[in-house]
Amino acid sequence: MSPNNDLKKLIDNLPFFLQDHLNQHPNKDKLIEIVIDLGRRPEARFISGPEYLSQKIISWQDIDYMTKRVSKFSNENRAGIERTLHRISCIRNRQFLINGLTCRVGRALFGTISVVRDLLESKKSILILGKPGVGKTTVIREIARVLADEMEKRVIIIDTSNEIAGDSDIPHSGIGRARRMQVAKTELQHQVMLEAVENHMPQVIIIDEIGTELEVLAARTIAEKGVQLVGTTHGNCLENLIKNPPLADLIGGIQYVTLSDDEAKRRGTQKSILERKAYPAFEIIIEINQQNLWTIHEDVKNSVDLFLRGNFTIGQIRQFSSAEKIKIKSKKFHNYQSSLLKTRTSLNDSFLSANNNWISVNKVKDKKSLKLKSRKLVIYPYSVSSNLLKEVLLKMGFKFILTNEIRKASLIIGLKKHLRQNFKLTSLAKQKNIPIYSLNQISFYQISKLIQFLCS
């Protein structure tokens, strides 16, 4: 089902004088929501900004016409349109009569999460932060489809307000093969989360808008059972989450700790400090700053610890456009305390030890590979998908050639367990002085990590 057909279904439920105007509007594909309030002119909100749709004032008859054409409003004052992703929210007066409607356009957009596909393949739990309307629900809907269809995971969506899979007993095709469990009342969401794990054996659970302490506790319980979580919550950045007591347990919780005199002196801090209580339920956090600009915290535990010490950690910024050009940059440290130097030194040490470990595992013998981006790579893939390798290298902007002749290769990339068994290949590579890089597992994440290391 294309986005245009879905939008037409929403427009067809509006009063006639609004249908004509919207059907002819040049920017209708960029429509975010339609606001209809009694005694006011109807308003459309586009990505570029709001504008009035008509000079006519909305009457009781206009509101009544639309409310009778959508599904029944729930206790949360939300309704939908059958087999679509649109959400209709109502405002009531003191007599509980509906005197205002907000019609939010729901679209299933494909390809929106290619910028974080490597994070999905890492099998870590992911929390998505962002203010209302920035597109969190659209992102997790696409994540559900990719995990279920392309990665063949058992995915269950906890669809409390029917925004992810639509207002129908049959889920919208935008979630792919993922299954969804509807929630009768918002206050029962945490029970349905636990029921999904106990009854349906999922590998991944997707939750939209985690907001209460019971839901946070349920998320922690699910994470401890080894199920991958993908969730969203309101908040602009990691700092908002740390300072929000009900939600802080998602990233390990915060507590006051009293240090001894010697320890406080060694750290150069006060005796009473804030520290993280436990291991985070979500290991990766994505902050949606804008629709095409995301900040990534790949190690939430480390990011929270550094923030509580008064330092901001290094965070990735991933930017992408409709032309599918993805840019990955890093935020640098901001100096807030004198302990910054120690923190940076320890991070550098750990980074060097990680690189040294990679070198010892992969037996790197040729330092020429550190300038890979400046020349064309000739790669001999061994037991690695050529299509996957092409996808990673193209997205990272490398010039490359895949070859079937070892003698022409400038490097070999292969699966570790298969390389160990092929003595002929390893001896020939040694003879021709061709470096071999081995991977423990074939995935987008592992290959991109290897390429990043070679260019560091």
Query: What is the general shape?
Result: globular
Number of helical regions:
15
**Sheet with most strands:** 9 strands, mixed
Which CATH first-tier class of the largest domain would you pick?
Alpha Beta
Helix fraction, binned, reads 25-40%
In terms of DSSP E residues, the strand content is 15-25%
Tell me the CATH superfamily of the largest domain.
P-loop containing nucleotide triphosphate hydrolases
Give the strand order of the largest sheet, numbering strands 1, 2, ... along the chain: 9-8-10-11-7-14-15-16-17
**Total number of domains:** 3
Structural class: alpha/beta
Assign the CATH topology of the largest domain.
Rossmann fold
- Compute the gyration radius: what is it? 26 Å
Low-pLDDT stretches are 332-371
Terminal-residue CA separation: 44 Å
Description:
InterPro entries: AAA+_ATPase, P-loop_NTPase, PTPase_dom, Spore_III_AA_AAA+_ATPase. This is AAA+ ATPase domain-containing protein. It comes from Didymosphenia geminata. With about 450 residues, the protein is of the alpha/beta class. It folds into 3 domains: about 5-105, Beta-Lactamase, CATH 3.30.450; about 115-345, Rossmann fold; about 360-455, Rossmann fold, CATH 3.40.50. It is built from 15 helices and 21 strands. It has helices at about 5-10, 15-25, 60-65, 115-120, 135-150, 190-200, 215-225, 240, 260-265, 300-310, 340-360, 385-395, 415-420, 425-430, 445-455, and strands at about 30-35, 45, 50, 80, 85-90, 100-105, 125-130, 155-160, 180, 205, 230-235, 255-260, 270-275, 285-290, 295, 315-320, 325-330, 375-380, 400, 410-415, 435-440. The strands form 4 sheets. Strands 9-8-10-11-7-14-15-16-17 form a 9-stranded mixed β-sheet, with helices on both faces. A 6-stranded antiparallel β-sheet has the order 3-2-1-6-5-4, with helices on one face. It has a 4-stranded parallel β-sheet with strand order 19-18-20-21. Helix 6 runs parallel beside helix 7 and helix 12 (about 385-395) crosses helix 15 (about 445-455). The two termini are about 45 Å apart.
